[in-house]
Write a structure and sequence with these properties.
Elements (H helix, E strand, L loop, with lengths): L5 H24 L8 E5 L5 H8 L3 E6 L2 H10 L8 E5 L16 E5 L8 H10 L6 E6 L28 H14 L6 H9 L4 H10 L2 E11 L1 H7 L4 E2 L7 H7 L2 E8 L3
Parallel strand pairs: 1-2, 1-4, 2-3, 4-5
Antiparallel strand pairs: 5-8, 6-7, 6-8
């Protein structure tokens, strides 16, 4: 492929730092040991997180629906990473991966779950990929969080406006018209509308997990999440104090982290 742009390299570095400095430590704190672990990352993007995890001793399969992003992942993975990562370009719902001899020990969906349609089916498919001791690590911004519509991806002043993605009816139509007409990234409106159709909250997520015979082993909430610290220099602020206050939890938590396992059947 052609040389990777500085912006893409910077984004890969952000993913790598997030994995090395925050995701690996919190997972180790929760009892995950990466030596010889088989990790399945669904929506691995440019693969920075997986590269950090292979340095911690894991082997990995990275699934990514965008061939261009996967090409960057393969280009930026260093010599020491490549033998330990197998990248696959595919849609999770039509994945060609067959787990014959060894199912993954850790499945990751990092800020992917909120984008997927038919979330009950997603959880069912995830369960099918799990053996008795597989752990499932899912992170997402709840829909009603300040930036739960990923509006930071826009190019205009709206990228800094919290909560507008959840505006009702006529008000949302006005925002939609403005984005189409004046924003520098109008194509992202399609994804914002997808997030509105398939909105996920912490309450709904917990119900989906229980309904599919899985259980949440532990969880961590952030008012200001680790990714904001890397990208914007903001302090990391825990939101665990809000976990039992539904309205505040849904509206103020910017990032929810869950470690999930199978129940004994």
């Amino acid at each position: 492929m052609n040389e990777v742009s500085p912006q893409k390299r910077a984004y890969w570095q952000y993913q790598y730092r997030l994995g090395k400095e925050y995701l690996i430590p919190i997972l180790e704190q929760w009892g995950i040991r990466f030596r010889d672990l088989l990790v399945f990352d669904i929506g691995c993007a440019e693969g920075g997180v997986l590269c950090a995890m292979t340095e911690a001793g894991a082997r990995a399969v990275g699934l990514e629906i965008s061939p261009s992003r996967l090409a960057i992942a393969m280009h930026l993975a260093q010599t020491g990473h490549r033998p330990r990562i197998h990248f696959v370009a595919a849609d999770f719902f039509h994945s060609p991966i067959i787990w014959n001899h060894r199912q993954p020990d850790l499945i990751i969906l990092r800020d992917v779950f909120e984008h997927l349609p038919n979330k009950p089916l997603v959880v069912q498919r995830l369960k099918e990929c799990m053996h008795a001791n597989t752990k499932l690590f899912i992170t997402f911004p709840p829909f009603y969080a300040p930036f739960g519509g990923h509006q930071q991806m826009l190019k205009s002043w709206l990228r800094r406006l919290p909560y507008f993605h959840a505006a009702p009816g006529l008000l949302w139509k006005m925002f939609r018209w403005w984005i189409r007409r004046f924003d520098g990234n109008p194509d992202f409106l399609t994804e914002m509308e997808n997030l509105r159709r398939n909105r996920i909250t912490i309450t709904l997520f917990r119900k989906l997990i229980r309904a599919n015979g899985l259980k949440i082993r532990t969880e961590q909430f952030y008012i200001s999440r680790p990714s904001y610290h890397i990208r914007f220099g903001w302090p990391i602020i825990s939101g665990n104090i809000l976990r039992r206050v539904p309205l505040l939890r849904e509206c103020l938590i910017s990032g929810a982290y869950f470690l999930i396992e199978r129940t004994s059947e």
